[in-house]
Structures are given as structure tokens and as C-alpha cells.
Request: fold
Amino acid sequence: MTDKPVLTLKDLSIEFPTPQGVVQAVKALSLDIHKGRRVGFIGESGSGKTTTALAVMQMLAEPGRVASGMIDLGGTNVLDLDEEQMRRARLSRVAYIPQGAMNSLNPVMRVEPQMWDGIIAHEGKLDRAELKRRSDAALESVGLPVHTADLYPHELSGGMKQRVCIAMGIILNPELIIADEPTSALDVVTQRQVMQTLKAIQTEIGSGLMLIGHDMGLMAQTVDELAVLKDGELVEHGSVQQILEAPKHPYTRDLISSVPLVGGESFLNPDTRAEAPKRASAEPLLRFENVRKDYGAVTALHPMSFQLQGDTPQIISIVGQSGSGKSTMGSIMLGFNPPSQGRVLFEGQDVATMSAAQSLDFRKNVQAVFQDPYACFNPFYRVNHALKFPFKQFGMAKSDAHTQQAMEEACAAVGLDPDLVLNRYPHQLSGGQRQRLVVARALMLSPKLLIADEPVSMVDASLRASILSNIYDLKDKYGISILYITHDLATAYHVSDYVMVLFKGHVVEAGPPKEVIGAPQHPYTKLLIDSIPWPDLHRSWGDGRQDWDPAKLEAEAAQASAVYRGMVPGFDLQEA
Amino acid sequence: MTSQDNMPMTRAEKRQAKRIKRFDNPWMNPKLIWGAALLLGIIAMGIIGRFVWDPDLVFTGSSMLRLPPVGFENLRGQAGTMANPLGTDGGGRDLLALIIIGAPNTLFVGLLASLIGMSIGIFLGFSAGFLGGRTDDVIRVSADVMITIPPLLILVVFQSAFGDVSLTMMALLIAGFVWQSPTRLIRAQVLSMKQSGYVQMAQLSGASTSHIMFREMMPNLVPYLFGSFIASVTTSIVTAVGLEVLGLGPQRIPTLGRTIYEAINAGALIQNLWWWWGIPTLLLAVIFIGLLLINLGLDEVSNPRLRKLS
Reply:
């Protein structure tokens, strides 16, 4: 590369004055982005990725400020520009593609005038035909049909909205595109499609790309260079190949090893096998009898029957994209959501018609870990309230000292220091700590069945493996059967004894994970597995091919009949 | 990592740090303190006044008629005396005694009415939001209907039918018109809170409905409840004073509104007896400013984004 880089960051430091003192969000960051290169910024939340991007655009939130250093955008020092000059540079020279496309489009305007806004703001009033020509060209370049221009944002799917945002970003052929986790709100299939679009368009206009993210696999499939950030510091920078194959910094190594691979080494260490707690009843632990759920005219879950015996602890995974009905299944099992048809039986007792005492017993024995650890604690109480209250409510507490001891043991079992966390308020703890506490809570109550609904999807990547192994321990050391609901096939591959793949409320493939995920047969399972971005350069994914059309593949998948791949003792899924 | 470790703070930074420190305790909010001080001042005046001043001076004919405040002269050339420092009205009632008795009465009606209204609102709002279904329909529709009916109209009819009412009776009547907006506000909050993770967690913990309502949800509603309470105190006082100025409301008990009614009735405006209507109006203004400041202060307490650093 002999060209002048499109973006040069030199000793960039950004700080935020707060009541507790000045926080250094970014520390002496130096980096070049060359024309046509894709550079990934990877790191945990709070590592300064987005802050750096916003500084390039001069859009730091108050009271943040660039303390020192230089930002050079293709020969212009951004920090010297005044507000008006900066306004002109935004979009025409540096475009920003935001994280949540759904919130970035104006809901009361059609797509077309929103795209024109950017052109008009930079080039003044133009001829309507000219505007139309350019917006249509931009939409076509991101692979959207021209008639999309006349739609309102709510008429588009998440992936389409994100592509509209990309089209808006490139409409003035910027030198640099900043994409801030552009696919974090999308599921894997759509993610692959959007990233392919972004790569193709970036190659076409030859701009630099700064991709912010936390997913090592996505980075491996998308970018040329990788910058690893930790606590505002650039800990490692190099080509993707170099970083993936020979990571130097221990943090980078952690990041890479924390991504579970299908067929790769397991991150779990199943050492002890506990027996399930002795059960008085011979009835299966959980049984679905023809359970179906409708929301209005939409059927979220088609009639399904299975039974989980629960005599030996097992992990059953339910895998699917958003909208596949997997979370609906979870809430039906918890009794939060009555089925439209059929019955859910817990130890032979219909969940819908339980007496108060039976209901309390059901609650004690069926616990859950939810997706969002931030919402799970009442902000008004210290976190120990969430552990203490159910323990007393279920009559398990012998004395206050006993409760305290049980809490401390549970915390220690999930790797938390009870002295440090128990007496805090929820907002003082990180997402990972909170999710561990929820696991500790489940452990304390020692239920017979735990429903884990996307337990790690909102936790930083480096913590996922360890929280999953905490959950896995519940099965192995404490004999709790677990229903693991997830969109992440790689983790399902490792933790589960049995996998069900759900597609539009139907089970399309089911069986032991080594077969279902290791060697998928159903077209939908194949589509899901092909869409996973592997942190493996040899497993090509988004190589810019435009012929990969998920809509067509999904239509094919809808035609194919379900594939059943063998049974495991203790879990019977009735073939539909 | 903070910068204090390695470099000394500039003077501006020090000042800012100090200012930030003061904002550490959100309840030490200047607006809130000033507002509370104004209202407490009025209550204190009512309590202390009864001991240092003769409350019997509120009766008709207890002093000379139409005396001006100290330092002023009335149209007849009489100068104000220390016997009646704020002057007297057309019936010979001492204005200082009138406001000592009347201002706390006005505040009392407002507080009692909105306390009752809020209690109804909390009960109905929680029931509607939590139980849903038919209960929700009934409560929501009746609150929406009640909100469209002008309260003064109904109250005028009621009061003329009742004739003389007591302060408590009047507060009860007004309470019937201030429960709607807390009901709607709490219902909306409960609806969104019902979906939140911690309520689901509490359900998983086998918590009873009342535990979820009052132990899990209620504490998080406190800022809204406070704000709503102050707003309905304001509404109640406006309504009460409105009725009194129309000559309705309690006939024998001095209130600020009734004093203004009598002043208007006796033609105090054209006779230049400004102290008669001016002093009660001033006190009402003080009450409203106090309530407004409390409301603004509470807003800042419950919404940290409004707390400015400058």
C-alpha cells in the first residue's frame, strides 16, 4: 500500500469527565486504515470501539472530549474542522452505519425521501429525476428491489432495514465507512446476507471500512486487518491471518478460544456425573401433549408432543432463528403463557389446573435463566433479594444464617466472590456477574428442571463459555435437567444431549447433536450452519458471491419434511 | 483509571468536581429544598401564628373596618396600626388572622383531596394493569370518561345542593376528580413493568400477586407517584380555590379562596382595598410556586439526565 491512508489515528486519547473522576475511554490509539481495506475493531463492551468511531465523526456524546492526538481523514485533520465543515464531511467523506437500523430510520417517512435528505444536505436542491436515479442505484447496489423506495420502514424486515441504512451510507461514495455492529440485532442467516452486501459494496466503491464488533467469527469472515481493543488500549493489530493463527496478546488468545466451534474441542470438562434427585413420582418430569400456540392468526408453535423423563439429568437444546417459536415454547413450559391447544404436564399434573400448593411446588422445581441479565434484578433491592426471597418463599430456609450460607455457597459454585457481589445493587454489577447470579439462584433452589432461554446471548463473548459451563455444571454436579433454548448452534453442539431444530414452529430436525449439527440433513439446518461465521479463514463464508439467496433456501426448507436422527433414552419426541 | 492519579486538576476541573459532588445526593436538590421550604413556611405560619396572634380576630367585627396594612393609608385617611399589621377587611376581620387560619386550610384541602385521589388511583391503576381483561376495560373507560367531564361543573351542582360543607367534605368531593390521571399513569407503568425480567423472576420465585404489586413494583414507581401526587395537589387547590371564589365551599371556615370571594363581593377592587384580595392572592402564588419547585426538583431527582453539571 503506497496510497495515503484514508484514516490515520495518531496517539488518540479520549476522556469522559464523570463524578468519579476522568475516565479514559481510549488511550493513545494509533492506527491507519488504507483505501479499500477492511479493518475490524474487536473488544468487549466498554473497550472504546464505538467511542473511537464517534470521535472520527466528531460526534462524541457530552461530556466526552478528545484529550490528545490526531485524527486525519484523507489529509484533513478532523479536529480542526468547525461544525459546518464537519457537517459537510459527514456522509460525503465518512459514513456511519448504526447498530440498530430499526431505530435509525424515520418511521413516518418513506425510504426514498430519507435517502434524498443526505444528498440534498450536501449538494443542494437537485432535480427529482436525478435524485431518483441515484437512490435507485444505491438500493440496487445493496441488492434491494427498486420498489423498496416507496415503502415505509415498518414494511421492511430487519435485514432489509439494515441494507437500506447501508445504501444511505454509500450514496455519496464516502472514503470511509464506519459500521458499528451492523448485524448484532439480526439472526445468523440475515447477518450473512447483510455482511455480504456490505463487503460487496465496499469493494465496489473502494472505500475503507471500519467494522466494529465483538464476534471473532464474523471478523474472520469479513475483515482484512484486526485491531483488538481492551480497556481503551490497542493490544494487538495485524492481519486477520496473523492474529487468528498466531495471536500474541493473551487477551486475543482468550477471545479466539472463547468462540466455541462445531466439531472443535469442547470447552466443558465433564468430570463428575451426578444422578438426578430422587423423584417420588414415576411420571415423566415434563410432558407436552399436542401443544400448540397461536397469536391471532399466526401459529407460533405447531402441535408438538414430547416427554422428558428426567431420571438421568439431560440437556435438551431447542435451536432456531428468531420467530421460530423457541421462546414461546420456553414460556409455555414455565406456565407464563397458556397453550392454545394441548396440555403441559409436570410430573403428570397439568400446569394450567394446579392448586396453589401444587403451583408452589411446580415453581420450586421449574426454574429459569432468562436472556437479559440486566432486567432480572429489581433495581430497588440489593441483588441478594433475588436469591433470598425464593429460598424463603419455598420454605427452604431454616434460619437467616442458613440462607446466608446457602447464598455464599451458590455464589462460590458459579465463581463469584459472595462478599463482593451479594450486597451490591444490580447496576453496580456487570452483565456477566448478574447472569452468574441468576445461575447461582437456580442452583440454590435446586429445581428438577431449568429452562435456559438464550442465557448468554447478551453477555460479552469472553464470558460466554464460562457461564455456559456454570450451567452445564448444574446438570453434571447437581443433577438438574436443562432445556437450553438458543440460536447458537455451536454451543448447542457442545452442551446438549439432544437437539431439536425449530423452523417456523415446526421441528425440522432432531437427534443427538453430533449428527444434527455435525452432519445436518435438513436444508434448513444446513442453511443455519452455513450462516455461522467461523473464526476460520479456510471456511469461506461471505466471499462477495451474490448468488447466495437465503429467501430461496428458506422456501426450499419449508418444503422439506422433518428429519429424525435417532433417539436418546429419557427423551421421546413424537414424530409429527 | 482516573486522571487525578497523575496530573493535578485545574481550577475549573476542581470547581466542576465540587459541583458534581453536590449532585451526588440527588435529594439535595436546590429546587426541591426551596419548594419544600415555601410550603413548610406556610404550615409553620399556621401553627406558630395561632400562638402569637389572636385567632379570634377572624370573626366579623372584631376590629375596625377596612384598615390598611402598616405604613399605608386607606381612602378615609386612616393609617395602619400594629393592632392589625396587614389591615382588616370590610367586615372588620383581621387579615393576618385570616391568612394564619385560611392558608393552612387551603393547603389541607389540597393535600387531603390528592391523598385520597392518589390512593384510589394506585388501587385502580394496579388492578387495571395487573389483572387486565374486563377489570382493565371498566377502569380504563371510566377514567377516560371522567377525564373529559369538567370537574367545576359537577362540583358547583354538588355544592349548591349540599349548601354549607366542611373542609373534609370538600376534599372528598374534589378527590373524585383527581384520581383519573394517577390511574392512567400507574396502569401504563404497571403494564410495561409486568413484562420486565424481575417481575418474571418474582413469579418464578412463587411470589403472590400482592407481593409482586407492592414489594417488587411499587418501590420502582415511587418517583412517578411523588410527581403525580404533587401535580394533583396543585389541581386540587386550583379546584378548591375556584369553588371558593365562586362563593361555594365552606361558608364559615376562613380559606384563601373565600376571602377573595368576599373581597370581590364587597367591591374591594374599585374601593382600592388592595390588601383584602392582594394578600391572599400572594399566598396562593407562594403555594403554587412551592409546588412547582417541588415538582421540578422531583423530576430531576427521578430523572438523572435532567441534572445538569453546569
Summary: Chain A touches chain B at residues 15, 17-24, 63, 334, 336, 359-360, 363-364, 367-368, 370, 372, 374-381, 386, 389-390, 393-394, 438 (CB under 8 Å). The radius of gyration of chain A is 26 Å.
